[in-house]
Every structure is written in structure tokens, then in C-alpha cells.
Design a protein that fits this description.
Largest sheet: 6 strands, mixed
Distance between the termini: 36 Å
Number of domains: 2
Number of helices: 9
CATH superfamily of the largest domain: P-loop containing nucleotide triphosphate hydrolases
Order of helices and strands: EEEHEEHHHEHEHEEHEEEHEH
Structural class: alpha/beta
CATH class of the largest domain: Alpha Beta
Strand content: 25-35%
CATH architecture of the largest domain: 3-Layer(aba) Sandwich
Length: 287
């Protein structure tokens, strides 16, 4: 297994406040890896230390390959044109001006627009293009689809999959759990400056005992009783909702009860715990 990034005992403090408390993790070459956490957890500081934007106080960071960065915002001059920014960054990086990259990100049609005239989504695409100059081995994406419409999000997701298929390593930070679930091979969750979880999406959903909602609609009002394998929660839209950790035993228990009370079932909906709920369960202790 070849590692693209290896972090060992990373420490970063701001005065008396230690934001990163000796974290260690690695990113494999060719994988899509997400770094998650609630506001203040330390994910942005961690990424900035890895990217070289911010100095750190202790530990080691090893990066195997060249990397490019798409930031949430940039300090581009308001009046610089899109093509001028792309040309300037290409020369800074001593790289050939690759207009095919320009076209693949849909920037050709706005190449003569000034930066201040761009929409949020157009700025995000330009930031990505600047981060990809020089064909880097590792790509850092900070909230890559923020401000993009549905079509733009889908196009960028497809672009990220192409990067992966071409052997690129992607490290991203996002608040969009659907995006994480769709794109990522592994993820790490930071909590109070420490790694609270690292693994696959499937491993995350199993980390916390999953709560499954059973929504039952019956012909007659249902007695709001608790059962051994499930607990009554609420009535919503004429459905009685129970939570359980064992869907088969919980559901059978309720159905046996209803059969004995001669109360026919009209509908049953089974709702599994979402990735966002699993994330919050670790990041905030919400259950």
C-alpha cells in the first residue's frame, strides 16, 4: 500500500488554546478521503497545516507527490479576468497553459469576465481550475460544491470520479453528507482537536448502535405502548413511530400486538439511520 499523506502526532496551538491535539492518520494513494468535523473541531486548521498555509507546533507531515488546492475563497483582484488568472497561475507554477482543463470545467464561456462579475459557482470552478494547474498528484478540495447548482454539483462529482480513476488522491472537506457518501472511500471525524473516528462510511454507520424508525399506520388508533424491542416516540401524519435497534424483532412484536387487537395495518415505513445522524452521533454525541 502506497501512502500519499502521512500525519504523525500533529499539534497546533493558538496561544493557550490547543486546536490540534496530537492527531495521526494517513491517506492512501488514489483514494478519496474526507476530513469532517463540526465548526471549531480543527478540520480547517489540519488541512491548512498539511497544505503548508499554516505552521504547526509539533509532529510530522509527509506528502508523497505534488499537490493542488481549491480554497473556499481567494484573494484574486476584483478586476482580473478569468483567463488572466489562469495564465498568471500557470506561469507561477511554471506549467503549460492547458486550455482543455479550462473547457472541461466550463470556463471557456466566461474566460473574459472579471472576477468580480462571477457568480459563486463560477468562482468555485475557477478556484478548482487554479488548483489543478500542473496536473498535481494530490488534490485538496475545501467545500468543493458550495454555491453550485444541481447541474454544477453533478458535473464536479463526475470530475472528482475521473480524477480518482486517473490515480489522483483527493482530500476533501464538506458539510454535504450525501456528497461524502457518494464519493469517499474513507473519512475521518475530528472532535475537539482529536480523531474521533476513521474508516469507511459503512464502518461509521456501524460505529454507533443504529436506531431504526418503524412508522405504522393502522385503521384504528394505535395504543401508544412500548414493547420489549421498540419504544414509542411520536405520532406524525397519522403514523405511529417507534424506534428499535432490531428491525425484525421490533416489527414482529408490534405486528403480533396489532393482530391480537384486530387492528389492520394500512402501511409500514422503515427508516434507517442516515449518515448525517451517524456523523452527529460521533461529532456531537447526538443520538
Amino acid at each position: 500500500m502506497t501512502l500519499a499523506i502521512k500525519i504523525e502526532n500533529l499539534i497546533k496551538s493558538y496561544g493557550q488554546n490547543t486546536a490540534i491535539k496530537g492527531i495521526s492518520f494517513d491517506v492512501k494513494k488514489g483514494e478519496v478521503f474526507a476530513l469532517l468535523g463540526t465548526n471549531g473541531a480543527g478540520k480547517t486548521t489540519t488541512l491548512e497545516c498539511i497544505e503548508g498555509i499554516r505552521k504547526y507546533d509539533g509532529g510530522e507531515i509527509s506528502i508523497n507527490g505534488d499537490f493542488g488546492v481549491q480554497l473556499q475563497s481567494s484573494s484574486l483582484p476584483a478586476n482580473i479576468k478569468v483567463i488572466e488568472a489562469f495564465t498568471l497561475f500557470s506561469k507561477w507554477n511554471k506549467s503549460t497553459i492547458d486550455l482543455s482543463l479550462f473547457e472541461s470545467l466550463g470556463l471557456s464561456e466566461i474566460k473574459n469576465k472579471q472576477y468580480c462579475q462571477l457568480s459563486t459557482g463560477q468562482k468555485r470552478r475557477l478556484h478548482l481550475a487554479l488548483g489543478l494547474i500542473g496536473d498535481p498528484d494530490i488534490i485538496f478540495l475545501d467545500e468543493p460544491t458550495a454555491g453550485l447548482d444541481v447541474e454544477g454539483r453533478a458535473a464536479l462529482h463526475e470530475q472528482i470520479r475521473r480524477f480518482k480513476n486517473n490515480g489522483k488522491t483527493i482530500v476533501l472537506s464538506s458539510h454535504d453528507m450525501a456528497e461524502i457518501e457518494s464519493l469517499c472511500d474513507r473519512l475521518a471525524i475530528l472532535k475537539d482537536g482529536k480523531i474521533a473516528f476513521i474508516g469507511t462510511v459503512e464502518e461509521l454507520t456501524k460505529q454507533i448502535q443504529p436506531l431504526i424508525k418503524l412508522q405504522i399506520k393502522t385503521c384504528n388508533p394505535l395504543i401508544k405502548a412500548d414493547f420489549f424491542h421498540s419504544t414509542y416516540v411520536e405520532t406524525e401524519n397519522n403514523y405511529y413511530t417507534y424506534v428499535t435497534t432490531n428491525v425484525s424483532d421490533g416489527l414482529m412484536e408490534i405486528l403480533d400486538f396489532l393482530k391480537g387487537s384486530s387492528n389492520p395495518v394500512i402501511d409500514i415505513i422503515i427508516l434507517h439511520q442516515s449518515l448525517e445522524e451517524s456523523f452527529l452521533g460521533i461529532a456531537k454525541g447526538v443520538k
